[in-house]
Amino acid sequence: MEYAKSLGCNHPEIVLHLDHGDSFELVKSCVDMGFSSVMIDASSKPFDENIELTKKCVDYAHQFDVTVEAELGVLAGVEDEVSAEESHYTRPEEVIEFSERSGCDSLAISIGTSHGAYKFKPEQCTRDPKTGRLIPPPLAFDVLEEIEKKLPGFPIVLHGSSSVPQKYVDIINKYGGKLPDAVGIPEEQLRKAAKSAVCKINIDSDSRLAYTAGVRETLALHPEYFDPRQYGKVARAYMTDMYKEKITDVLGSDHKLVNCD
């Protein structure tokens, strides 16, 4: 916050968010430490148990003006030690009851995204005959549209939305990595989602790929390097470029700080 103010932003809109909290105790500790928002991910639990745990977190967090994100529907993959072998879409017929009974402030849904750099199995995709690269299936925008109708104006969240940029995958593979058939969410689908009720799109694997590409490339070209400040320089630049592109060209979230004067 102080650094943002030193850059001339007198009223910085910065949050400290807990992602994929899996227990009330963890959520409570983050609230107590000053987090401005938390997520409780009880999506693996039965519907009523998900509501019960989410509501318990909401009741505590709201006492301190902390917002709570919940999840309904299951994403495949592993994120923050929360894992699932299989995914299932969010059921639009459940979202009204869930949001009203739990009191959550935003809702993460499942419409085909997943965690990690292998978001789809080869058998779920088609293959480009020219490049041999996988073409993933489209997201279930019909599910998103039904949820929007059920909860007009309610903040929706998408997790597992990395696009797995091929340029970083190629660099990793060129310099000793092994990421065959890594595939993500096409950016045109993220652009479409960003124009809907989706207010937050989580992107993590792309950052890891960009950083890993920079490290592998630098160490291959400069095997004498041993200082992280040396081999991390290109990695950080790749990460910065990646996020700039996402913010401006994909998500359309640039220049959204309303109080940055």
Key terms for this structure?
261 residues; alpha/beta; 6-stranded parallel beta sheet; two-stranded antiparallel sheet; 14% strand
Overview of the structural elements:
- The chain has a single domain, classed as Aldolase class I (TIM Barrel, Alpha-Beta Barrel).
- By secondary structure, it is an alpha/beta fold.
- It has helices at about 1-5, 25-30, 45-60, 95-100, 140-150, 165-175, 185-195, 205-220, 230-250; strands at about 15-20, 35-40, 65-70, 75-80, 80-85, 105-110, 125, 135, 155-160, 200.
- Helix content is about 40%, strand content about 15%.
- The strands form three sheets. It has a six-stranded parallel beta sheet. Strands 4-5 form a two-stranded antiparallel ribbon. A two-stranded antiparallel ribbon has the order 7-8.
- It is globular, with a radius of gyration of 20 Å.
- It has nine helices and ten strands.
- A hairpin with a 6-residue loop joins β7 (about 125) and β8.
Strand portion, in percent?
5-15%
CATH C-level class: Alpha Beta
CATH-level-2 architecture: Alpha-Beta Barrel
Q: What's the helix-strand series?
A: HEHEHEEEHEEEHEHHEHH
Helix content: 25-40%
How many β-strands, per DSSP? 10
Strand order of the main beta sheet, please?
1-2-3-6-9-10
Task: Give the end-to-end Cα distance, rounded to a whole number of Å.
Answer: 14 Å
Number of discrete domains: 1
Structural class: alpha/beta
Which segments are poorly predicted (pLDDT under 50) over 5 or more consecutive residues? 77-85
- Rg, Cα atoms, Å: 20 Å
Number of helical stretches of at least 4 residues: 9
CATH H-level homologous superfamily name: Aldolase class I
CATH topology: TIM Barrel
Nearest-integer average pLDDT: 90
Largest sheet properties:
6 strands, parallel
Tertiary shape: globular
What kind of oligomer do you see? single chain
